[in-house]
Design brief:
mainly beta, about 65% strand, 19-stranded mixed β-barrel
C-alpha cells in the first residue's frame, strides 16, 4: 500500500502545506492529553479580535476502532466513529453532528497498490454524494473527484488532476471549480539535511483570465526551530517562526504585512500547542 497512489485530495498537498500550514494571525492555544488506556483529550481555544471560540475533543482508540467526540463553544456536538482494516486497505467512518441531524454521512476509503478510492454518502433522504479516485503509483498518479446533489439533481463539483512525486520534489496540475480554474504547484527539497525547501503555487481563472500565485520557503535553523516565508501576487509578505521548546510542544509566531499599502497595519499571530 505504501507504494500506491495517495487519495486525490493529497495531490498538491505538500506545496499547500508549506505555503499555508501553521500560519495563524489570531491567538490560539491547544492542549493535548493522552493516557495509556487509549483515551485522549484535546482542548483548543482561539481568540479572533474580540471573539473567543473553542472546542473540546475526546478520542478513544481500541483495536482498529477510533471514536472522536468534539463539543464546540456553540454547543455543537460532532461525533466520528472510524474503523480501519475491515477489509485490508479500507477505512470506514460514520460521522454526525448534533443538533444538525442532516449532517450524518458515511465515508469509505480503499487503498490499493495501484489505486486510491474514496466515497462519501450523506445519510438523508436526498443525500449529497461525493466520489474520488486516483490511479497510478506513489510516484505518478492521475485522479478525479465528483460531487452530486440528489435533491437538485446537479453536480456540485468535478475536478481532475495529476501529481508527480520523488524523494526531493513534488509537482501537480489540477483542473478545479468545474473546469474553470487551473492550479499548478511545485515543491523542491533543496537541502534535506538542513530542511530547506521552496514551493510555489499558481492559479489561473480560465473564464476571467485572472492569475494569482504564492511562493514560499521553509528552513530548519536547528533540529527544534523552523522558519518559513511566503510572498503572494498581491504584495502580502508573511513569516512564520516555530520553536519546539519541549517534546511535542510548539510555540509558533506568525506575521504578515501588505507591502502595497503604505499605512497597512501588520497582522500578528501566536499559537501555543502543549502535549505533556
Amino acid at each position: 500500500m505504501g507504494n500506491g497512489p495517495a487519495p486525490f485530495s493529497e495531490i498538491g498537498k505538500k506545496a499547500r502545506d508549506l505555503l499555508t500550514k501553521d500560519y495563524n494571525f489570531d491567538h490560539k492555544f491547544n492542549l493535548t492529553l493522552q493516557s495509556g488506556t487509549g483515551l485522549g483529550l484535546v482542548t483548543t481555544a482561539v481568540q479572533k479580535d474580540q471573539l473567543f471560540v473553542g472546542d473540546v475533543n475526546t478520542q478513544y482508540k481500541t483495536g482498529n476502532t477510533t471514536v472522536d467526540v468534539k463539543v464546540d463553544s456553540s454547543s455543537n456536538v460532532s461525533t466520528t466513529i472510524a474503523v480501519n482494516e475491515i477489509v485490508q486497505g479500507t477505512r470506514v467512518a460514520l460521522s454526525f453532528k448534533l443538533p444538525d441531524h442532516k449532517s450524518s454521512k458515511l465515508d469509505v476509503q480503499y487503498l490499493h497498490p495501484h489505486a486510491a478510492i474514496t466515497a462519501s454518502f450523506g445519510l438523508t433522504n436526498t443525500p449529497l454524494l461525493e466520489f474520488s479516485t486516483a490511479i497510478g503509483s506513489k510516484q505518478l498518479s492521475l485522479g478525479a473527484e465528483v460531487g452530486f446533489d440528489t435533491k437538485s439533481g446537479s453536480l456540485t463539483k468535478y475536478n481532475t488532476g495529476i501529481g508527480y512525486n520523488t524523494d526531493d520534489l513534488s509537482a501537480s496540475l489540477i483542473l478545479a471549480d468545474k473546469g474553470e480554474t487551473l492550479k499548478a504547484s511545485y515543491i523542491h527539497i533543496v537541502n534535506p539535511f538542513l530542511g530547506t525547501a521552496v514551493a510555489a503555487e499558481m492559479t489561473h481563472k480560465l473564464t476571467t483570465y485572472e492569475s494569482s500565485f504564492s511562493i514560499g520557503s521553509s528552513h530548519s535553523l536547528d533540529p527544534f526551530t523552523l522558519l518559513k516565508t511566503r510572498f503572494t501576487h498581491n504584495g502580502r509578505a508573511a513569516m512564520l517562526y516555530q520553536r519546539q521548546w519541549r517534546p511535542n510542544s510548539l510555540i509558533t509566531f506568525s506575521a504578515e504585512y501588505d507591502t502595497k499599502v503604505v499605512e497597512a497595519t501588520p497582522k500578528f499571530g501566536l499559537a501555543l500547542a502543549l502535549k505533556p
